[in-house]
Amino acid sequence: MRTAVALAFALGCASFVGAAHAELPDLAGRAVTVVTENAYPPLQFVDSSGTAVGWEYDAMDEIAKRLNFKVEYENSSWDAMIPAVSGGQFDIGMTGITIRDDRKEQVDFSDPYMRSEMLMLVRGDETRFADAAGFAADPHLLMAAQPGTTPFYVGVYEVLDGDEANPRIKMFETFGAGVEALRAGDVDLALTDSTSANGYVAASDGGLKIIGEKLGAEDFGFIFPKGSDLVAPVNAAIAEMKADGTLDALNTKWFLDYKMGQ
After folding, report:
1. Distance between CA atoms of residues 210 and 194, nearest Å
2. pTM
């Protein structure tokens, strides 16, 4: 549940925001298709009632309200998302996508809406290693990863030996599938940003934990087809939401109150 303080803060933000809407572009009810994976709690996931929820849903709904566009949500696997947005199949993509120069060759990014740090996620009873060096030193230990993601490249180049074909990296279609393999004992480590790591740990009832030092930081952004006229309006909305405290209120809801309610 949300705390009274967080609720009051969010309501205060809402009253402030109402006066600021006139400064943003008005997209006149335009239909905008947003694609996501629904596999990255607490950014976006399907809850126990079957409803798609999360930080990014709340943020995108708020952006749509401020810019006066109508959101239509679609789902896609991670590996198909960037090519699909690049090809104009969807207007916006959101699934905790790290802003990287190589991806900028295919899609345009919004300004960052969140900064997160890479962490090591293991089973709650793990005692064989306590950091990246300990994992790398034991050739029997396996890591879960999604191909082409930041955790994959961090695992290859900062934890292991730089060989992208290293058999110690087991590939999964979704991050959630990798976490299930971790919990089942089929792999021993999953790398992910602090956003997702803290969400999974909070929901695991002691089944998962975070170990070791942070392995680096990454900025998240929404993605658009190259040259999209939505980038500037969305950036303006993100800037306003940062300035008036709305993003901070979402962080409280999904990274503090959400964990407390698990």
Report:
1. 9
2. 0.68
One-letter amino acid for residue 261 of the chain: G
Q: Can you say how many angstroms the Cα of residue 72 is from the centroid of all Cα atoms in its chain?
A: 19
Strand, coil or helix: 44:
strand
- CA separation for the pair 242, 154 (Å, rounded): 29
Of 158, 223, 157, 156, the C-alpha closest to 170 is 156
| Integer CA distances (angstroms), 2 to 8, 194, 197, 250, in order | 10, 21, 21, 10
- Contacts with 140 (C-beta within 8 Å, 6 or more apart), sequence order: none
What is the bridge-based pairing of β-strands 143-145 and 189-193?
parallel
Cis peptide bond N-terminal to 42, omega within 30: yes
SS (H, E, C) 2-35: CCHHHHHHHHHHHHHHHHHHHHCCCCCCEEEEEE
Question: Which residues 6+ apart lie within 8 Å of 160 measured at CB?
Answer: 136, 143, 166, 168, 169
How do residues 37-47 score in pLDDT, each as one tens digit?
A: 998 888 999 99
How large is the C-alpha radius of gyration of the chain?
19
Tens-place pLDDT, residues 210-239: 999 998 788 999 999 999 999 999 999 999
CA 135 to chain CA centroid, Å, is: 25
